[in-house]
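Lecture 7, part B: from sequences to assemblies.

Below are the input chains for today's worked example.
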Amino acid sequence: MATHDPAALDGNALAGQLAFLGSPDVTSLVLRCATCGRTDVVARVRAYVTAMGSVARCVACDAVLVVAVEQPGGTLVAMPGASWVARS
Amino acid sequence: MGIVTRGFGGRRPDPGRPLPPGQFLTQDFPVLSAGPTPDVEVDRWELVVTTEHGHVRRWSWGELMATPAEDVVTDIHCVTRWSKHDTRWRGVSVDVLLGDVETTGEFVLVHSYGGYTTNLPLADLLDGQAWIAFEYEGEPLEPVHGGPARLLVPHLYFWKSAKWVRGFEIHDVDEPGFWETYGYHGYGDPWLEQRYA
Amino acid sequence: MSASSQWHVATVVDAPRITRTARAVTLSVPGFSGALAGQHVDLRLTAADGYQAVRSYSLTAVGADERVDVLVDRVPGGEVSTYLVDDLRVGDQMEVRGPLGGYFVWRPDDAGAVLLVAGGSGLAPLLAMLRARRKIGSTAPFRLVYSVRTPDDVFFPDELDGGASDVEVALVFTRTTPARWPRPAARLGKDDLVAPGFDAADGPTVFVCGSTGFVETVAGLVTELGHDPARVRTERFGGA
Ligand SMILES: Cc1cc2nc3c(=O)[nH]c(=O)nc-3n(C[C@H](O)[C@H](O)[C@H](O)COP(=O)(O)OP(=O)(O)OC[C@H]3O[C@@H](n4cnc5c(N)ncnc54)[C@H](O)[C@@H]3O)c2cc1C
Ligand SMILES: [Zn+2]
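Predicted structure of the full complex, as structure tokens:
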């Protein structure tokens, strides 16, 4: 595991890239990690925002929950490691 | 074009010689982190080559260090639009590591510590085009830049040069890696500006 | 498409330097509205050759529509912050997306106690909370613990001056202190986070904001002090 991780942000930082999904506040949606079962709001996941795209990871097991890529042609969002997303 | 922010980008250095289309020269070495930096100790490090028949060839750190290495001076091009001239590396040519591996597979899925993957044709790892690099500018490669060892394939966009490399899986078919699954180009030639699929 | 997912054209209307390293930037943004204290925006800068960069900045004030107030501290070597702090001029244009994020927010109808912990530019969203509280005349108990390197690095010292409001402000200097300051210069520790009315037993909502390194340290300290992790909200800005 990483000892220091200055690149890590809170899932809250992904609000702009996920805003097009249309829910009033995407970062308040609840995600379940398919790997370890941890369930929490998007705002509290670990986020890595890069110029290639953003990656949200489970704070408990590091699994990739969400990937968002903004390209000239549009935005792509994948949820490879989430078993579900819910609005509470 | 839409809005332009006056003066933004105005401090960029003059490249002096041609850059791939859409690229800008940088003096820094920006870090692109899609996850935590894995803590890879060299006494546990290994590079595992798996063929399409399931044959496995392992290299320990000691074996890698005992293999003749080369100094490489090359330009690198990141898909996020920065390029860097004349970066100096030291590493072992992938030709040496794959020399006695029997395969007819044409594609490689590169795996990293930390779970990252990227794909490229096997031919692009051969003929003096790719290295397992463990030194940068005369110093051991820092963990944030992929240390202890990363793949270096400088003729392709830099996301193909997987940090924290741990293995090559050789396949008959091309399987997309991490960014390639999410819309980035399967090959990624910077001179052809192959950013997105 | 909701308005917060769209890019709005923004024009710089004011950009005073507030410390050696920081500027307060005010943008006029037609179409921007409805921000909550604690939210941020994404700024998109486009160079003449088409190159673009996007960065997030917290709103330092809310309530005035079509107006975006942010505070930018220069990160040495940083691509966007050095431009914003050193080169930006009134009249320059960029694009804004937001307001963004509904989690790291203080809502005016919340009367509960609030402990704010800021490191450097991490003051920005917490300032919006303090300003919103004052503007609506809320009596929710607030305490701000604000860590800075030196006295010159304090943003908006007059506004934060304890005498000027009913909010207790504890400044923590990490490198040098003003003359005769009771607390020696040192990194923020557990003692700095303890105060009657704002301890774990009082169950305040805790907002922590600053560089990633700072937030991780403080989040660890408040957890050790017994605060319920569910009541601790963090905003990491990146950096060690
Ligand atoms: C939700 C959110 C809100 C933010 N709000 C503000 C704000 O109100 N005011 C503000 O000044 N900044 C804020 N930031 C940080 C801001 O988005 C930029 O990251 C920062 O301005 C640096 O950008 P840059 O382009 O100059 O640096 P880059 O060129 O992107 O990065 C240069 C290096 O500096 C490091 N770095 C990035 N941020 C920091 C930091 N804060 N401290 C130390 N090192 C850092 C990076 O890891 C990188 O290695 C916020 C970030 C987020 C995610
Ligand atoms: Zn998990």
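Note for the exam: Chain B touches chain A through 21 residues (CB under 8 Å). Keep this in mind when comparing with the next example.
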